[in-house]
Description:
Blueprint: H1 6-9, E1 29-31, E2 34-36, E3 43-47, E4 54-59, H2 63-80, H3 85-101, H4 103-114, H5 118-134, H6 138-141, E5 146-150, E6 153-161, E7 164-168, H7 176-187, E8 191-195, H8 202-213, E9 221-223, H9 228-234, E10 240-246, H10 249-261, E11 265-269, E12 274-278, H11 284-296, E13 306-312, H12 319-327, H13 347-363, E14 367-370, E15 389-392, H14 399-402, E16 409-415, H15 418-426, E17 430-431, E18 433-437, H16 441-450, E19 455-458, E20 474-475, E21 478-479, H17 486-492, E22 494-502, H18 506-513
Parallel strand pairs: 7-8, 7-10, 8-9, 10-11, 12-13, 12-18, 13-16, 15-16, 18-19
Antiparallel strand pairs: 1-2, 3-4, 5-6, 6-22, 11-21, 14-15, 17-20
Bound molecules: nicotinamide-adenine-dinucleotide.
The site of nicotinamide-adenine-dinucleotide has 29 residues, from helix 9 and helix 10.
Amino acid sequence: RSLGLTHRLFSSSPTSSYTNANLPxxxxxxINGEFIESQATTHYDVINPATQEIVxxxxxxxxxxxQEAVRSAQxxxxxxxxxxxxxxxxxxxxxxxxxxxxxxxxxxxxxxEQGKVFSDAQGDVMRGLQVVESLxxxxxxxxxxxxxxxxxxxxxxxxxxxxxxxxxCPFNFPAMIPLWMFPVALAAGNTMLLxxxxxxxxxxxxxxxxxxEVGIPKGVLNxxxxxHDTVNFLTSDPAIKAVSFVGGDKAGKYIxxxxxxxxxxxxxxxxxxxHCIVLPDANKDHAINAIAxxxxxxxxQRCMALSVAVFVGKSQEWIDQLVEQAKKLQVNGGMEPGAxxxxxxxxxxxxxxxxxxxxxxxQQSASVILDGxxxxxxxxxxxxxxxPTIIDNVTKDMSCYKEEIxxxxxxxxxxxxxxxxxxxxxxxxxxxxxxxxxxxxxxxRKFQSEIEAGQVGINVPIPVPLPMxxxxxxxxxxxxDANFYGRSGINFYTQxxxxxxxxxxxxxxxxxxxxxxxx
Length: 519
Ligand code: NAD
């Protein structure tokens, strides 16, 4: 069943800041089961990165609206925590069905606001959908342990929800990341305030309506908008027990510290610099295709995008083939047939990528062997496009290496041995993902055990674990201890209660004696 959703999610009567009736609509808040117009005085433009059209305006929710959202979540928690785990399992079964039915609607919203190509946008939804599917196993995920610890004495643990929790999302996966958060929190019995990125809230709004359609009660999920003010509220309000964040380093560190200072648990997934190693014994065509897809797909705006390829010894002879492969990729608007990568999110992000490429091209010893800066996309002349770019002979001190570019830019490092390659990668402060291309099981195993990255790929360029596991970035890419989704995600959103009980066998006789007489 596909829903005719958009009319409820956006207002057609702009707020006082926008008096011209032809201006775009504003995105609504979702508080206590109602899609409501914010009384905000500040709004953020959501700009289609391919066309520069303003798609909608996102309100900075007022303090009063944020208070209302948290109050409604507190009230809703009283009932929601008492729903049976089977009821919550059923909601997840229904939600995954509706997401699947509305996949193209969600993907189209992502293309419009975020810019990625339609097939990538479908993948964005699919990866989030898989989390919801995994939550249909919530009864088993919520199970505790039990042990007879002494004569007549048992200790058992119960997983209980925390209460009201909050989620703060980045722009780059508008469906997947909200789906890493709210279904897990809700299935575990919590209620939530979720803040999508102010750059692309559309997919979250559709998901909120799908949650309503499956009967998630009012107040259990609330969508609040805004930027810093909303983040400050979510990380300090005493009713909020835990904060999930995915985004960049600056915001992540701030949110982690501020949440901790206010006594909340926090999980913060942050930036990355993901490397791969190419050994000369690798399957050449597989490695080259995989690297091109992982470096330039989604315009490099994936936290697990491959941004550094370390070519060992003779594999350096394949770099020309990688350049040829990258040249074949089609840069275009996300809905155009055959498009491989779309625009970057903002003009500022594009400009920053240009500067980082420029710094390596002019001031440093590296060479730009494929330069995407002059790419022209006829149909979208004002889009934020950057073509695939490859910088060769990159060293660890260059700014194009030290900084996360978050665009379709691949740095190439040349070394002589596998040991040198591993040592080079381990010196990087980030630890999200790393992969190796080789036909040698021994080399793959050595890499797996020596590499300091949380998600390791062997002949797999973007090793993001499916949700029966968890997303396990580490080092500078993560703050906290419980990871997103999987068992670890459930641990984050629950606390353990351990009960020790003594039921003396001798007392059973008393129970016998006190049975009511049947005569
Ligand atoms: P961002 O940090 O700019 O924004 C993320 C969220 O934080 C947004 O909701 C935003 O409103 C808020 N925010 C931004 N700056 C803030 C500040 N100074 N104080 C308080 N709140 C602030 O990130 P982004 O540009 O939307 O997303 C891209 C980043 O996210 C990249 O660094 C990417 O690597 C990272 N990311 C990481 C993962 C992961 O799992 N490790 C996944 C996706 C994206």
